[in-house]
């Protein structure tokens, strides 16, 4: 018996022997499984298929078909992502734009999705986050200038990391601290504090 007859077929050799129809079915099956778990952008699916070794022309064909039947919809994905991440994770517009672009959503869809967040809604969410954080840090001595500045920098930094613009973060933190501390304190310049983060 020849040694070639005893060799098992490797996954790589099996993959190379697939017909175009088998590649299509395999790629479609993978996409449907991934889409069943959560929504994905077209770029995310393309990258996942590439990692699985699916030929590019097969991937594009499958992705075109899934887009045609609305199983892939980057505009809808962006709107859902923005709504969820803004509401539940407290992300600001800037952070959401970065997240969506990393997922391959084009600028037009990003802008459209971000337009659903009003200025008032963003300010309200930033206020809630700052108030919540300040509530947990209720041991701050507001008469101590160094402690005031440290608390201010931490709050502004927290909001900035979540994607809120420096001016908005500064304004919200100033309001929250004034309301919570009962003191009219002088806050550091937002330009000076934003460089610390």
Automatic annotation (TrEMBL):
Keywords: Cytoplasm
Biased composition, class Basic and acidic residues, residue ranges: 13-22
Domain (RecX second three-helical): residue spans on this chain: 73-114
GO biological process: regulation of DNA repair
Record localization: Cytoplasm
Domain RecX first three-helical intervals: 27-66
Region (Disordered) residue spans: 1-22
Pfam family, one: RecX_HTH2
Record GO cellular component, one term: cytoplasm
Function, in words: Modulates RecA activity.
Family: Belongs to the RecX family.
Protein name, entry field: Regulatory protein RecX
Protein's gene: recX
